[in-house]
Write a structure and sequence with these properties.
- The chain is of the alpha+beta class and 333 residues long.
- The protein contains 3 helices and 21 strands.
- Strands 13, 15, 16, 18, 20 and 21 form a 6-stranded mixed beta sheet that branches.
C-alpha cells in the first residue's frame, strides 16, 4: 500500500535540511583555509624587535665651598661645577656687604648637576652705637659689645688697675660704627706682666720691655725695675742708664744713674741681637707727698748726662726729652 502523505512530507524536509547543511559546511572550508594560512604565516614570521627607552644618566657633582667669599667671586666656582644659584640677603650678618655667610646645600654635598644652590649674603651693615665699657670686667664688656653686634679684640698690659678690668677702649663710648666693627679693649694684666716698650735709642739700642712688679710705694721704699735691652749693632761707646722718679709737679725726686749690670757688662761689650735683662733699684726719699709719680729711663754716654741718646722711635711708650715713660706709680702715706 502507498505510504501515508504525512510521512512522505517529512522525508522530503529531512533531505532538504541535510542538503543545506552540507552546502554550508562546504562553503566554510575556504574560510577555514584562509584563517589557517594567516595563522601559519604569522607563526613563521620573526617577531618585531622591541626597543627599550634608555634611562638618562644622572651626573652627580660636589657643591663647592664659597662661604666667606663675595658672591661675585663665588659665581665662577658654582658655574664650573654645573650648578645654578640664587641669592638671598641675610640682615644683620657680621660680614662685609655681599659676602656669602651661608649656603644650602652645604659644601661638599653631592647633588645632581644643574641643581640650584642658595647663597645667603650679608646685607648693608647696620649702624650701632658703641657702649662704654671702661672700668668694667672684660667678660662683662665682651657680652655688652657682642649684644650690640660688635667684635672684640683685647690687649692685656701692665697696669695698677685690678686684673681683667678694661682700662681703655677704641672706638670710645658713643661712637657710631657699622655692625660687626672691631672694638679694641685694653685690659689690665696687673703688675706681673712685662711692660711692652720697644723704644729705639739712636738706632743702636732697643728697649724692648720693662718689669715693675709693684705699683704702690711708701716713702723710703726701694723701687726695683728690670729693663730688657737689645743691641741693634756693635756699640763702640759705653752708655749709662738713668732711672728717674718724677714727682706730680714734674720735679726729679729720686734717681739711679749707672752703667748696665752696675758696670759688669758695659754697652761696648754687647753682642748685636742678644737680649739682656738689666736690674735697677732706686731708693725713695723718706719724706714724699702722696700722689702719682712717673718712672722714666733712658741712656747717655758715660760722663755726659746732658747728652742723652736720642729716642728715634718711641715704640709703645711716651717720650719726653729722650726720657722714656715706663709707668706711673702711686706713693701712699
Amino acid at each position: 500500500a502507498p505510504p501515508p502523505a504525512a510521512e512522505t512530507g517529512t522525508n522530503w524536509q529531512t533531505w532538504l535540511l541535510g542538503a543545506v547543511a552540507t552546502i554550508a559546511v562546504i562553503g566554510l572550508i575556504p574560510l577555514w583555509a584562509l584563517v589557517y594560512r594567516a595563522w601559519a604565516h604569522s607563526s613563521a614570521s620573526p617577531a618585531a624587535p622591541v626597543f627599550a627607552t634608555p634611562t638618562p644618566t644622572v651626573v652627580m657633582v660636589s657643591v663647592p665651598d664659597v662661604q666667606g667669599q663675595p658672591w661675585e667671586e663665588a659665581r665662577p666656582a658654582l658655574e664650573a661645577a654645573g650648578l645654578r644659584f640664587t641669592l638671598e640677603e641675610q640682615a644683620g650678618a657680621a660680614a662685609p656687604e655681599g659676602t656669602v655667610v651661608r649656603q644650602e646645600p652645604p659644601p661638599g654635598q653631592a647633588v645632581p648637576k644643574g641643581s640650584e644652590v642658595r647663597l645667603y649674603i650679608a646685607g648693608p651693615p647696620e649702624v650701632v652705637e658703641v657702649p662704654g665699657v671702661v672700668n668694667v670686667p672684660v667678660e662683662v664688656a665682651r657680652s655688652w659689645l657682642e649684644q650690640a653686634g660688635l667684635q672684640i679684640v683685647t690687649d692685656t698690659i701692665w697696669s695698677t688697675q685690678p686684673i681683667s678690668t678694661v682700662i681703655a677702649q677704641a672706638p670710645e663710648r658713643g661712637a657710631e660704627v657699622q655692625a660687626g666693627s672691631v672694638v679694641t679693649l685694653t685690659v689690665s694684666g696687673g703688675t706681673v706682666l712685662p711692660i711692652e716698650i720697644n723704644a729705639n735709642l739712636g738706632n743702636i739700642i732697643l728697649l724692648e720691655q720693662a718689669e715693675l712688679l709693684q705699683a704702690r710705694f711708701r716713702p723710703g721704699d726701694e723701687l726695683s725695675l728690670s729693663l730688657r735691652w737689645q743691641a741693634l749693632t756693635t756699640i763702640p761707646t759705653r752708655y749709662v742708664v738713668f732711672v728717674h722718679l718724677i714727682g706730680p709737679s714734674g720735679d726729679l725726686v729720686a734717681q739711679e744713674d749707672v752703667e748696665p749690670f752696675y758696670g759688669a757688662q758695659p754697652t761696648d761689650t754687647w753682642t748685636p741681637g742678644l737680649g739682656l735683662w738689666d736690674l735697677h733699684q732706686v731708693r725713695l726719699p723718706p719724706i714724699l707727698p702722696a700722689g702719682t709719680y712717673q718712672v722714666r729711663t733712658g741712656m747717655y754716654p758715660a760722663g755726659e748726662p746732658g747728652n742723652r741718646l736720642p729716642v728715634v722711635d718711641p715704640g709703645e711708650a711716651r717720650v719726653e726729652s729722650h726720657s722714656i715713660l715706663i709707668a706711673e706709680v702711686e706713693i701712699v702715706p
